[in-house]
Design brief:
By secondary structure, this protein is of the alpha/beta class. It has 2 domains: 161 residues, Rossmann fold (3-Layer(aba) Sandwich); 115 residues, Rossmann fold (3-Layer(aba) Sandwich). Helix content is 38%, strand content 15%. The chain is built from 11 helices and 10 strands. The strands form 2 sheets. Strands 2-1-3-4-5-6 form a 6-stranded parallel beta sheet, sandwiched between helices. A 4-stranded parallel beta sheet has the order 8-7-9-10, covered by helices on one side. The radius of gyration is 19 Å and the shape is globular. The termini are close together. About 2% of the residues have low confidence.
């Protein structure tokens, strides 16, 4: 069995790395004897005159997407390659979802899936499952693959007292109040892209996870920073108004947009195990 996994861009958003680590863990557990090939999720080569395209031409049995891939950007990046693939590979969306589900985006994806006839949807939220389940041969109301992180990596223990801000979007009234509070804290400011510009920046997901797992608390505008903190037991508040809060509702996690939130990992692990079991039945 040969699987082609499509990654996100770690440099542009380290949250994509959290997704990739979780997805690859689940694929390896579900199909331990499979060969898993990996290609970039952000296009191929700038000077690609000979048409290098692993999705269209790769010798694989399955092509797997994860994360925020159930939206029109996927059609723009991969639509032609998927519709014209020579390998007849089965298409799986694993722990996948959209952003805020505007009507135009939903209709575009439904038409694309109607034409594509993909194999399996394992959603990460109720919206994705309900909008698209009928366009796949198999559908499962799953969870975000990044909830597998503690099964992938154990962060190093750090004997430090600090809080974190990971805020990269315009602040609302609540977060302005938090800004005043955070001025009194021993604070680290982190960006999710791997560049400097006056903030703490690191280039691997493991470094981010070490920092998040040991913080006293984290205030963030990023969904996957929130997921990582919940996985490792760090109190976290999400400073973002988004329908993607359904990712947390799926697991019964209290709304992290309201206040600092923690959650026991054991019921999350149970859902991870269920998802791997379902995926194992799909990869045959």
């Amino acid at each position: 069995m040969k699987i082609l996994y499509i990654t996100g861009s770690w440099y542009a958003n380290i949250g994509d790395a959290f997704i990739d680590l979780g997805a690859l863990y689940q694929l390896k557990k579900a199909a331990p004897n499979a060969t898993i090939n990996i290609t970039s999720g952000m296009g191929y080569y700038e000077d690609n005159k000979i048409g290098l395209d692993p999705i269209k031409d790769g010798d694989v049995d399955y092509i797997v997407f994860s994360g925020m891939t159930v939206h029109s950007k996927t059609i723009e990046l991969y639509g032609k390659s998927l519709l014209n693939r020579k390998n007849n590979a089965k298409i799986i969306f694993l722990g996948a979802g959209g952003e805020n589900y505007p009507t135009g985006d939903i209709l575009s994806m439904q038409k694309f899936f109607y034409d594509l006839k993909p194999y399996t949807l394992i959603s990460r939220d109720k919206f994705t499952y309900e909008y698209y389940k009928d366009y796949f041969d198999k559908s499962y109301e799953g969870i975000d693959v990044a909830f597998s992180l503690p099964l992938v990596y154990t962060p190093v223990k750090l004997d430090k007292d600090y809080s974190i801000t990971n805020i990269e979007r315009p602040l609302n009234k609540t977060s302005e109040e938090l800004k005043s509070y955070l001025k009194k804290k021993n604070k680290i400011s982190i960006k999710n892209d791997c560049s400097y510009k006056g903030r703490t920046a690191v280039s691997t997901p493991y470094s981010f996870l070490n920092i998040y797992a040991n913080a006293n608390e984290v205030f963030t505008s990023r969904i996957h920073t929130t997921i990582a903190c919940i996985c490792y037991g760090t109190p976290v508040q999400l400073l973002l108004q988004t329908r993607r809060i359904a990712i947390f509702e799926r697991l019964g996690i209290p709304n992290p947009m309201i206040k600092l939130t923690t959650f026991d990992y054991e019921p999350i692990k149970e859902e991870v195990d269920k998802q791997i079991k379902y995926l194992s039945g799909v990869l045959k």
